[in-house]
Each structure stands twice: as structure tokens, then as C-alpha cells.
Write a structure and sequence with these properties.
Helix content is 30%, strand content 16%. By secondary structure, the chain is an alpha/beta fold. Strand 4, helix 9 (236-241) and strand 5 (247-252) form a beta-alpha-beta unit.
Length: 643
């Protein structure tokens, strides 16, 4: 019996006792008092006994409570019973109908990249690499089928073995082994590809090359944490930087170097399909501590310096730019490059002129390597305000990048202090805020948060977000006990917010691609980079710029609520299926009505699912849906096999 019931009984006994007392208060007062005290004691003991768990119904409740901590990992529980039809509004016909079963695509689509489709690309101009940019299919051209894995597909090797070996069946393309044979990119050995760590500019290995750069750039002490590799090849530079706790965002176009980005991701190295053409890079301003080009074939001096200006936009104040290969040191190398020295001389002159306009100081030039450093604030280059060639972008345009054309303008520095401060734009202060070395910066307050640059995000909001995601990730680890064991190397957060999920998972065993949707209420990607994490802008109504089967684990927090009425959830889920490896996992966190719809759709996609309560209990409307993609591959004559 609960306390309020006991109180009611006691009140009734007191009322009865009062009647007794009023009848004969003088002769029976002591007896009445004794009766009242006795009744009070009786009901108190009765309630305490029932609350103790020895009451039949309460003992069952106690057992359920005891087992509740681990109920989410028991396979024989049906979590859907926590929200019946009375709490969720659904269409009756939708509830009763069977899920639509999605058929496998033809095996010719094994490596389908919807927004970088080769046939469609060839219909666009080649000038300025327009044809290599994103060109997504129209609604009636989208595939509504499941992309198969190639026959013989296997789970990639665990890191760090995956850095050096990729199963041949996962990306069965040998062209690079022939084309780049003398450059030590990739070798075919039996049923695996081996990556010796070489490159066009570092045939002796990426380790030696990176150590050479580290003699000029502070790579070893955490000052440089995020890097951008333009035209990355198979991303050996990014792969070996991870040994120094530097994480690189590598990109290359889908071009004649077949599957180079696919190889990078199979190795467990961050990479996306991309190109410096006419559209801005999908990254925030002041994101990277270092940018790198090793024979990336980008014409840096062309188009009024627009490509160097775009690198300047995404490079942090005080960051470094490395250019390795032509035209550096052309006087000694033009014969080996088989190019006219006059052409190379003019090319380098243009690069030097643009670097001066951008206030980049050359720190090093030796052999075929040159290194520049960007000024820490505008005070170091006040003279360029009077330069007729210096055209400045509007500050708000530096963050507006999705499908926006690059312009030949210089991104302005944020102010260091207020104009009334005597240290305003002093030569020593870092514009936009100085970052701590990594890993200290992971949980330090990002300068964009501290300065109030992100509307609606305060220091308190940021700290609470970190606390919340530590709790969420701890709950995930109870549901999926191998989440941080190394089983999942390539992880994607589809709606990253401030990067709390990635920060809570931070480990050398894994990396997280933090995606900030272009329709998100708050533009938080700059703060994600200031934490020493990497990410990208993307609209989930379109396909992501990657190959199929490139992520081991996908986290989707509030994605389907965010995109409600924006685009078909079927398209988003089919895209998730495309980029998820066989036997890869998905964690959805969303409102229960959304997750019920998602569960119904993926029921026809060869996924196994389980709906789980929020870690705070079944009364919380937000739930967790855990899914695992079944293993199946393309087989002969477009049939499929699950063997």
C-alpha cells in the first residue's frame, strides 16, 4: 500500500477516534488514545512490509527494476511494448501492411556513386574541372534498390594492419599497381593489395617525408592536429600522419586513377570524393592547421589565384601550406619534369605573388618542397589594404559554401579584440582565438563558442552537451559492447552538432566523420574543427561523396525529425545502406514515432533491428533503434548470395 493510502486510513481512524472521545471523554480517554496509537502503528508496519518487496506484486516490480539496467542488451525482449498504438498516431493501413521489400541493384552498380556518376559527369564542361564536381541525379533517375557488395567481399583488416593491406575482393582494381608501380603507391600480392607507404613525392616512404616536414612545422606536439590533403591519391600521407595524432581530411576526384578514395577508406583513412573546381570546399573557414598538395595537379596560379584563396579560407590563422612538386625549385628540376623552364618559372612566380597577397610567409624551400605560413591576424598584413589586387570577401560569405561558387576574393580575419583595445590586432594574438594543443583542445571551450559566434550556443550549452553525450555513449556501449573495440574503424555522425558523440568516442582505434547538415539550425562545424575533430557539410536529401561500403558504423541523431517533410526518408535510408559495410551497424536516436517508421522501412532492406528505450527510462519519448546490415553479395547473373 502506498503512503497516501495509509494517510487516508489513518485520517479515518482519527475521525472515528474523535467520535469515541466525544461520547465519553472523561472515562475512556486513555483507551481511545491507545486505540489510535495502535491503529497508526499497524498501518505504518503494513505499508513498510508491502514496500519492502515481500508483497507479491511489489516483489515482481523489484525484480524488473533490478534487471532494467541490462535489459537493452537482452535479445529476447520486445522493446516495442513500451509505446503502444495509443501513444503513437499512425495510419492504420500503414501499420497493417507489410514493409516494401527493396530488391538488389544490378551488379554493375557495385561501386555506384550517385553524385559522381561517370556517364553523367561527361555531359558537363571539362574546363576548371566542372565535370568532376557533384552532379546528383534527378528524382526520376535515383536508384531505389540495394547496392550489392562484390563477390568475395570480406570485413577489412583491423587498424593498423588495414593501413598496409586491403583485401583484393573489396576493391578489385589493379590499374594503380601498374600506373604507379615505380612510385611505391600500391602493390598486388596474392589476394591482397599492399600499401608500402610511398607516393609520387615520397618514394622512400611517407614516414621520412612527414619527418622532413616536422623539422619546419610543429607536427609532433599537438599544435598541428587537423590537416587537408588536396588530391590525396590513396591517402598515404594522411595514413602515416595518424601516427603523430594528426588527422587529415583527404580528397580526390573520381577520375582515371581508379578507386583511389575507395582504397583510402578501405585502409581506414578519412577521405571523400572531391575536387577544387568552381565550387567552394564543403568545410568551414579557419578549419585546418595545415594544408598539403603533393603533385596534386591543381593549377595554383591560375584563375587569379582563386584556388589558393580557397585554401586560405579554410586554413587557420598561423596555419601551414605545403606544396610539394612542380614548379618548386624549377631551376634544378625542369629537365626531369620534361617541361619548359620558362613555363615553370612563370607558374612559380604567380604562386609567390598570390602568397604575398594572402600574407603567407615562406618558411622553407628545399628540393621540391616549399612551406608557407599564414599570418596569425590582419595586423601582420595591414599594407595589403592599399593593394589594388586585394579584393576582400564579405565575412558572412566565408561560411556559406554549399554549392556556392568560389570568388577571387580574400577571406577577412576575425577581429582579435575590440577596436578600442590597445592590443587590437596585435601581431602576437591569433585571430579567431588560439587553440590548445591536442588532445587538450578536445574538451576545451572552442573559441567560436567562447566568443558567442554561434547563435544559441553558450559556454554552458557546450559543457552540458559534452555531459549529455558522455552519458549517451555510455548507454551505447551497454547496447553494443564492441563499439570502441576496434571492430568499427570508419564512423559517421550524420547530425554531429558540437561533435560531442565523436569526442566521447575519441580513440586511436577509430575516427568519426562529423557531418553538419546544411539545413541544421546552428552552423557548428567550425567549433567541431576547433576541438581537433574533422567533418563536412552535407544535405542528406542527396548522396554523400563517397563510395559504397565505406563506413563501419553510422550514428543518426534526430536526422529523420530534421528532414521530416524535406525529402523522402526512403532515399536517406537507401543512401545509408549504400555507404554502410555488410555487417556494419547503425544507431538511430530520435522520437519514437520517427523510429517506428524507420524500422518499418528498413524491414525491407535486409537489416536486423531492435528498438531500445532511452537510457533515462521508458517514459522518455526519444528512443534508440539499433540496426545491423546483413551480409550479402552480388553473385552470378545478378542474383545475390548471403553465404
Amino acid at each position: 500500500m502506498m503512503p497516501d493510502v495509509r494517510s487516508k486510513n489513518i485520517y479515518e481512524m482519527l475521525f472515528m477516534a474523535n467520535k469515541i472521545l466525544s461520547a465519553d471523554s472523561r472515562t475512556r480517554s486513555s483507551v481511545s488514545i491507545f486505540i489510535v496509537v495502535g491503529l497508526c502503528c499497524f498501518f505504518y508496519i503494513l505499508g513498510a512490509w508491502q514496500r519492502s518487496g515481500f508483497g507479491k506484486g511489489d516483489s515482481i516490480a523489484v525484480e524488473i527494476t533490478k534487471s532494467g539496467a541490462d535489459c537493452n542488451i537482452l535479445s529476447n525482449l520486445n522493446f516495442e511494448t513500451h509505446h503502444g498504438g495509443e501513444s503513437v498516431t499512425t495510419d492504420d493501413s500503414e501499420t497493417e501492411s507489410k514493409p516494401l521489400v527493396f530488391k538488389p541493384c544490378s551488379s554493375k552498380y557495385i561501386d555506384h556513386t550517385p553524385c559522381q556518376h561517370q556517364k553523367r559527369a561527361m555531359t558537363f564542361p571539362r574546363q576548371n574541372m566542372v565535370y568532376r564536381e557533384r552532379h546528383c541525379p534527378a528524382e526520376n533517375e535515383k536508384l531505389r534498390c540495394l547496392i550489392p557488395a562484390p563477390e568475395g567481399y570480406v570485413t577489412p583488416f583491423p587498424w593498423p594492419k588495414s593501413r598496409d593491406y586491403v583485401p583484393y575482393a573489396n576493391a578489385p582494381y589493379k590499374s594503380l599497381t601498374v600506373e604507379k608501380a615505380v612510385q611505391n603507391w600500391i602493390q598486388y600480392e596474392g589476394n591482397v593489395f599492399r600499401f608500402p607507404g610511398g607516393g609520387t613525392q615520397f618514394p622512400q616512404g611517407a614516414d621520412a617525408y612527414i619527418n622532413h616536414l616536422a623539422s619546419v612545422i610543429p607536427i609532433d606536439n599537438g599544435t598541428v592536429r587537423t590537416a587537408l590533403d588536396t588530391g590525396c591519391g590513396v591517402a598515404s600521407w594522411g595514413a602515416y600522419l595518424l601516427k603523430k595524432n594528426v588527422i587529415a581530411m583527404s580528397f580526390a576526384p573520381r577520375d582515371n586513377h581508379e578507386a583511389q578514395v575507395q582504397f583510402a577508406l578501405e585502409r581506414g583513412v578519412p577521405a571523400v570524393i572531391g575536387v577544387l573546381g568552381t565550387i567552394k570546399l564543403p568545410y568551414p573557414s579557419r578549419a585546418f592547421d595545415m594544408a598539403h598538395c603533393s603533385r596534386c595537379l591543381i593549377p595554383w596560379g591560375a584563375n587569379d589565384g582563386i584556388y589558393m584563396m580557397e585554401v586560405d579560407r579554410v586554413l587557420r590563422p598561423g596555419g601551414y601550406w605545403v606544396l610539394s612538386g612542380p614548379p618548386i625549385n624549377w631551376k634544378n628540376n625542369y629537365r626531369a619534369w620534361l617541361r619548359p623552364k620558362e613555363e615553370l618559372q612563370e607558374e612559380q612566380r604567380k604562386i609567390e605573388d598570390i602568397a604575398r597577397l594572402l600574407c603567407w610567409e615562406k618558411k622553407y624551400e628545399q628540393g621540391e618542397i616549399a612551406i608557407w605560413q599564414k599570418a596569425v591576424n590582419a595586423g601582420a598584413c595591414s599594407g595589403r589594404q592599399d593593394d589594388a589586387q586585394a579584393t576582400f570577401c564579405k565575412s558572412e560569405e566565408t561560411e556559406d559554401v554549399w554549392y556556392k561558387k568560389m570568388e577571387p576574393c580574400i577571406s577577412p580575419y576575425p577581429d582579435v579584440n575590440s577596436p578600442d583595445d590597445p592590443d587590437f590586432n596585435s601581431p602576437d594574438e591569433v585571430s579567431g582565438g588560439e587553440l590548445l594543443p591536442f588532445p587538450k583542445r578536445l574538451y576545451a571551450v572552442p573559441p567560436r563558442v567562447a566568443s558567442g559566434s554561434i547563435p544559441g550556443v553558450s559556454v554552458e550549452t557546450y559543457l552540458e552537451d559534452n555531459r549529455l553525450w558522455k552519458k549517451h555513449v555510455n548507454a551505447y556501449k551497454k547496447i553494443n559492447k564492441i563499439i570502441d573495440s576496434g571492430r568499427y574503424r570508419n564512423i559517421m555522425d550524420m547530425n554531429a552538432g558540437l561533435g560531442g558523440f565523436a569526442a566521447a568516442l575519441e580513440s586511436p582505434k577509430l575516427w568519426v566523420m562529423n557531418v553538419v547538415p546544411t539545413i541544421a539550425e546552428k552552423n557548428t562545424l567550425g567549433a567541431v574543427y576547433e576541438r581537433g575533430l574533422i567533418g563536412i557539410y552535407h544535405d542528406w536529401c542527396e548522396a554523400f561523396s563517397t563510395y559504397p561500403r565505406t563506413y563501419d558504423l553510422i550514428h543518426a541523431h534526430g536526422v529523420f525529425s530534421l528532414y521530416k517533410d524535406k525529402c523522402d526518408p526512403v532515399d536517406i535510408l537507401l543512401e545509408m545502406d549504400r555507404i554502410l559495410r555488410p555487417e556494419g551497424a547503425v544507431i538511430f536516436r530520435d522520437e519514437v514515432d520517427m523510429l517506428i517508421k524507420v524500422k518499418k522501412i528498413v524491414g525491407g532492406m535486409r537489416w536486423d533491428t531492435k528498438l531500445v528505450d532511452h537510457e533515462d527510462g521508458p517514459l522518455v519519448a526519444e528512443k534508440i533503434l539499433v540496426a545491423v546490415k546483413q551480409y550479402w553479395v552480388a553473385a552470378a547473373k545478378n542474383s545475390t548470395s548471403s553465404q
